[in-house]
Design goal:
This protein is mostly helical and 137 residues long. It contains seven helices and no strands.
Length: 137
């Protein structure tokens, strides 16, 4: 569970960037924490702990991508992508070795899913995808 706690703390830190955590953002994190095996007491303990900057070096490449994609989903949970959140997401992308353009790409993907306007998947070469370039370069 310790590894999952790092992940949950990182999400809480990100959610606090715009100065407030909406009910939707807290519910998003809580649901994810429960899905990762945390009970309500464990979640509340993590939630109430002092804020600490997550150490991105502790995660593998796939964990980094999962964390990053989840940060983007969290950013969109309250329906508002604040400039502070986008800027911080771009900094995190760079620290994790991803192209900063991945932020806008993932925002677009998740907004399309949310509105039901998701485009059918298209097969593209690895060189066409910023996401794949970020993961495999």
């Amino acid at each position: 569970m310790q590894k999952n706690n790092r992940f949950i703390r990182a999400l809480i830190h990100f959610a606090r960037l715009d100065g407030t955590i909406s009910l939707e953002e807290k519910a998003f994190i809580q649901n994810l924490a429960q899905g990762l095996g945390a009970n309500l007491d464990e979640f509340n303990s993590i939630w109430d702990a002092e804020e600490s900057q997550p150490n991105e070096d502790e995660f593998s490449v796939l964990e980094n991508y999962f964390l990053f994609d989840t940060l983007i989903q969290l950013m969109l949970a309250d329906g508002i992508a604040h400039e502070a959140e986008i800027g911080y997401a771009q900094k995190i992308a760079a620290k994790l070795g991803f192209d900063s353009a991945i932020v806008n790409q993932l925002i677009e993907v998740h907004q399309e899913k949310k509105t039901g306007n998701a485009k059918p998947f298209q097969v593209k070469s690895q060189s066409d995808s910023i996401l794949l370039k970020s993961l495999f370069n």
